[in-house]
Amino acid sequence: MWYQIKKTKVLYKTFLITTLISMSACKEKYSKPVAPQPKPVEAVQVVPADNNLSQYVGFYTAQHIISVSTLREGKIKSISVSEGEFVHKNDILAIMHNTDSKLLLAQAQSEFEAAHANTLQLSDLVKRSNGLDTIGALSTSTIKDRQSALSMARAKEKIAKEAEKLAESQEQQSMVRAPEDGIIIKVSAQPGALAGVGSEIIVMAAGNPEIDVELYDSKSVNIGEQAKITIIGDTHPIVVKGEVVRISPYFDPDTKVRHARLALKNPLPIPLNTSVFVTLLSEQVKNFVRVPLTAIFYTKNTPLVWVVSKNKQHIEEQNITIVSLKGQDAIVTGLLPEQLVVSSGPDLLQHEDLVKIVQMDEHS
Questions:
Q1: DSSP alpha helices (H): ranges in the chain?
Q2: Which regions of the chain are under pLDDT 50?
Q3: CA distances from 135 to 35, 88, 128, 216, 243 (A)
Q4: What gap in Å lies between CA 265 and CA 28, rounded to an integer?
Q5: Is pTM beyond 0.90 here?
Q6: Are 39 and 355 in contact (CB under 8 A)?
Q7: How far apart are CA 22 and CA 47, in angstroms?
């Protein structure tokens, strides 16, 4: 009996201990959070760019490109300029056939001269008539008739003068003139061709000489920044200085290209639209570094990269400014040398992601 009771107590204790251990294991199993798995990434170490000077391709142009067009329709009689020729303001560039306008002008001038002569004659007659009614030499009604005739003659003279001005204007419209000093860069029509109102005949470049430069991101360039322009000549390069005077506020969303204009002090000894090399000489100290193009992603047209933390487990977005492209790399600002950035697949990552570097890319 005593043996059975003891055996029962032993079995009970054994069951109780087993149950407690099992419950403890279950509690640990379900209360312990599941650690997020780090995403494997490839990384690269940021390295300094070769130099702090950005070189671009530019094109020689002028401050204004003007399309000179006709003011009336008709046939082009002659074109008096050729491409590359320098012209002054109001120089005649082309002449339209103007037989009708010449006839109208001659007729209008003739009518005005007749009206003017009639006005002078009646004016003299009215002057000589003044006071003759008081002495009975002329009746009052006759004097009033002469004064009315003079008023009508003056009105006709005014109308004839306006018609003459209109005919002169039409005659002037047959001559296409240069709106300002400049260089003819294109002759768009030929003598004998029919032209409508507003048809382009001449294209000319006017204003100060400038260089048009394509920038990958204008944030790296400032108004007033100096530049070195290099022209590749037949014998030796020609180097002149320029200054950034305008930067386009818009850029191509596909190529990320933005345009800037550089003013020159003097014209260059090359044809317009000739390509030149432009080196921007920034007055500010900038840390220019190189990163692979595969590391860059965009958010609302803003270029960014993922910077890897010092413990190599976390990532953080970093805005960058693209200065230029060099092979498979981009020259950028906004990063420091020796920082680690994710080098591929940046679009697949998010802020809260943990990462694990599985490969360090060579980047020298």
A1: 2-31, 99-129, 140-173
A2: 1-3, 5, 7, 10, 28-30
A3: 129, 66, 13, 96, 86
A4: 80
A5: no
A6: yes
A7: 57
